[in-house]
Amino acid sequence: MDDFSAEFWEDDWVKIEMEELQREIDESGVSNIEEFLRKRLERWREVEVNIAVTGDSGAGKSSFINAIRELYEDDEGAAQVDVTECTKVPTAFDHPTNPNIKFWDLPGIGTPNYPDLETYVQKVELEKYHAFLIFTATRFTQYDLQLAVKIRAMEKKFFFIRTKIDDNVRAESRKRSFNENTMLTKIRHDCLENLGDLLSKEEDLFLISNHEPSNWDFARLTAAILDALTRYQRESMTLSLGKAITRSSREIFQRKVDVLKGRILLVSAASAAAALVPLPGLSVAVDAALILRELSLYRSQLGLPEIGSAEFTRLHLATREKVLKVGLTTAAQLSGFLAPYAAEAAVEEATRYLPYIGLAVASGMSFAATYYALYRLLGTVEEAALCVLREAAEKTAADFELEID
Length: 405
What we know:
Helices cover 55% and strands 9% of the residues. 38% of the residues are buried. A 6-stranded mixed beta sheet has the order 2-3-1-4-5-6, with helices on both faces. It has helices at residues 4-10, 12-28, 33-42, 61-68, 117-123, 142-153, 165-172, 180-195, 218-227, 231-240, 243-248, 250-273, 288-301, 310-313, 317-325, 331-338, 344-351, 357-360, 365-404, and strands at residues 49-55, 91-95, 98-105, 131-136, 157-162, 205-207. α2 (12-28) packs parallel to α12, α12 (250-273) runs antiparallel to α13 and α15 packs antiparallel against α19 (365-404). It has 19 helices and 6 strands.
């Protein structure tokens, strides 16, 4: 028996899920626990998230809305870029994989339809947004500052974002004395002077490029938006972030791993609660389809390339083998993977952490078998995904050196 089990149960996401599951059993018993578990596993697709994006025309709002959704400017549903400001009403842009997550392009204050803050607050329904992103490519306006004061009074989170940092770097790099860190410090200092005492902490100011999200503060901004949301909203948006953003930041990558780890308890309990037939070759009954669906989620969330794709074939042999190891698609393949973990000792180790669930749901071997299998599968997918990330980083560095040469 490995010693990883205690570490798993101490994970914050796992503890939260365990408390909620035990609360459900305390309040409703176990008769409907399977339905509760399956609904909980899909809840992240149904949570509503509304992010407000505001600022002057030309500040990069549309480019950001496309970048966070990983859309090109000519993709269907992309926000129009480099057009005359024409937003007269709040305009929603759905996330391409989760329409319940919406980024709202808000009109500016001081226009004919929104001549002042009071009119603006009423017309745009300020209370319905869960976080506010205030953009500028130069200096924040008085209207931006007034809006921030109003948002703070509503006890909602807002972030100031200075865009087009890539343009600044290119312009300044033509000087002999160019130093990127010095330039960024100057921009940050100018923004802080402009904002006065509106920022409670400097970390709420972000310098980004919408065209280079792997550089500067784009990933940090993404993480800050997640932290401004409620638990279920954070889970929903974390699992809705695309491959490019996940690969651009180890923090975002780890956040996805943590959310997926929290689901292991729910999937294991759902497998145990169902009326199941043992898989061929196993003495334990598990919900093979449920486990394989979860494995597919792991692969897509952590950015593994599809087996046989062009990206897959370009990987080193050792990395391809790691990706293939978690390419299980059938019950027979799953049975072979589960066999080492379907032991009575595993049941005792897993259920001792669950004083209520252990008696009500996890009394059979399927809970422990599923729990250990998913923990192993997630760890293996994580290891393979990190190898893919390292190869991508090495290729980017090599391409950069070639450009310099």
